[in-house]
């Protein structure tokens, strides 16, 4: 079947910048063909100037990530005809949130800088010669997903926080960070968590789930972020806005059975910074987005909510005793 594919072209050579535009190519699509096969067909037969990355062609190396019909995917793992039937068009563009070097090739320097920031190696006590360092299957399973990352950048390309703040550490590096924080042999967990809790770190994630949705290897970066946050609170790394926000949410639901936005702001930001938020609070109030402070009503049957908290506390204690045994 004949398919028209549109590819983003952009060549800044000699200019330092370029304006991307879509160039259409007609190709003969065969059963089983991938988007990467289509790109090769265009380059080999129609236009040798087209630039894109690839290596393994088997969804292993992570180098062929591009936007296909607006979403980050591996070109070698996406079937051309199936995608065309689903979306009625094929538009291939470079990965979002990365600077374009040429056509579909993006600059991965910032991606690697973020990965390096989380120090992707294990800090462990010096092994005693001849002594085995046994790690149970259960503890390995906790970090198994993060180990499956192929560094394709699809998650960073889909990240809403990264889109508005280029300094955000971003999901790929956070998934990698959990690989080491979650490792029972790691000796610097707390230090790592303190660093990850700094500005532009793990607490800036807005939990949009895009990273988990578009990861082609089921790494589930958002789950890694949630585990990092829980571990930080467990380890007492709570002197930051993110952890304070979580604590104020938990406290608010326990106290009144719902979110008391005004009280949460004070607990999260402190008194002085909260004063500066008052105009914003009024705007939210006018749009019905914030219950009135002070007259905030406690829900009926608040005692039922408190019972849930007691039950969670009891179960947590039981789980701790089990681990100690
Ligand atoms: S869940 Fe968080 S890290 Fe993942 S894409 Fe959304 S904002 Fe980014
Ligand atoms: S977490 Fe998934 S999407 Fe992100 S770089 Fe690793 S493999 Fe790619
Ligand atoms: S070419 Fe290696 S992942 Fe696609």
Radius of gyration over alpha carbons?
Answer: 24 Å
What is the ordering of alpha helices and beta strands?
EEHEEHEEEHHHHHHHHHHHHH
Q: What fraction, in percent, of the residue positions are helical?
A: 40-55%
**Assigned CATH architecture of the largest domain:** Orthogonal Bundle
Give the integer mean of the pLDDT values: 92
Question: What would you say this structure looks like, in words?
Answer:
This protein is an alpha+beta fold. It folds into three domains: 105 residues, Beta-grasp domain (Ubiquitin-like (UB roll), Roll), CATH 3.10.20; 116 residues, Alpha-helical ferredoxin (Fumarate Reductase Iron-sulfur Protein, Chain B, domain 2), CATH 1.10.1060; 79 residues, no CATH class. 46% of the residues lie in helices and 10% in strands. It is built from 15 helices and seven strands. The strands form two sheets. The chain has a five-stranded mixed β-sheet with strand order 2-1-5-3-4. It has a two-stranded antiparallel sheet with strand order 6-7. β3 and β4 form a beta hairpin. α11 runs antiparallel to α12. It is globular, with a radius of gyration of 24 Å. The model has no long low-confidence stretch (mean pLDDT 92). The structure holds iron/sulfur cluster (2 copies) and FE2/S2 (inorganic) cluster (FES). The site of one iron/sulfur cluster has 15 residues, from α5 and α7.
